[in-house]
Specification:
The structure is a homodimer.
Chain A (H helix, E strand, L loop, with lengths): L2 H13 L6 H13 L1 H18 L1 E2 L6 E2 L5 H4 L7 E5 L2 H10 L5 E4 L17 H10 L4 E4 L5 H14 L5 E4 L15 H9 L2 E2 L1
Parallel strand pairs in A: 3-4, 3-5, 5-6
Antiparallel strand pairs in A: 1-2, 6-7
Helix pairs in contact in A: 1-2, 5-8
Bound molecules: zinc ion (2 copies).
The site of one zinc ion has 8 residues of chain B, from helix 4.
Chain lengths: 198, 198
Amino acid sequence: MDGTRDIEALIDLMARLPGLGPRSARRAVLHLIKKRDSRLLPLAQLMDEVGRTIRTCLNCANLSTGDICPICLSEKRANGQICVVEDVADLWAMERAQVFQGRYHVLGGTLSPLDDIGPDDLHIPKLRDRIAAENVREVILALNATVDGQTTAHYVAQELAPTGVGLSGLAQGMPVGGELDYLDDGTLRAALSSRKPY
Amino acid sequence: MDGTRDIEALIDLMARLPGLGPRSARRAVLHLIKKRDSRLLPLAQLMDEVGRTIRTCLNCANLSTGDICPICLSEKRANGQICVVEDVADLWAMERAQVFQGRYHVLGGTLSPLDDIGPDDLHIPKLRDRIAAENVREVILALNATVDGQTTAHYVAQELAPTGVGLSGLAQGMPVGGELDYLDDGTLRAALSSRKPY
Ligand SMILES: [Zn+2]
Ligand SMILES: [Zn+2]
């Protein structure tokens, strides 16, 4: 067996990660091989561990080791507010900024006719169920300020209207065309605190 | 156990790779989790495999699964030429360009008084032994066109002078301050074919 095949396969897989190309993948792999015990093997072990244990929260679609994620399990987070985000990365951005004390609902994308993503591909019916089940009084639509994001927010708002729940969207501070995951904490805080009724 | 700890640890390790930062590491990890079976678990398995099997060729310091790498084992590569490079990445660059048919010698760095790297930290004595053992008639010093690279080339040339072996260095086509691993194949080919006696 020729071990350089494994190295090439490893470079090839690394090069497919967002933000890496063939050249940076080669550098990363050499770096890892040089730091075998402190980087390469721990990374292999953690990836295996995460791959075997992490799944999707049945309630909010956050990542979780159990059926229900710690945020959904925490009674402290049951403050009557649900923040709807497109992606787990957006939930992470909110949590890093520490500006929101309620629970989340991860749609898992946006409506996108071009990509053949319709309402059934997103996590919307479950959101409607949660309004009553968790005594929710406000749903904050924290979707990206993109066309797809705002189309999706509009659709979700329409779907939830019959429940009578309060609806708001992030407002001031979000740059046009901007994406949530790129905002600094201060901008995110301003956008949240000056949210406007939908 | 809270699985988000593992995810955070994974992001942290990924963020230490050259070319990645915290933000791109988060995106990469989310991407991997979403492609658990096609990306995350295969990557974990390959990293483990590479970590357990890859070592350094005892002859040339190339990466290898055996004590001696395939290039050193191949009689076809015993053409009397050894190409001295700083790093395995440079050897890869030469092999990709397919411009050299001889064997390599990987120094594993450059002389660098500031970083406390002296001749004993590099792979130089072994190179002298190889001149006689492998009937070498030409050593091509393919080191980076940096101050450290050229200082190292000068030192290696002095060390090898008593053996009477022919010495050359990559010439035309290498930009001043440039690094081997960044060159396109054509430039590398030109630099090799117009190499000048040292
Ligand atoms: Zn949850
Ligand atoms: Zn070798």
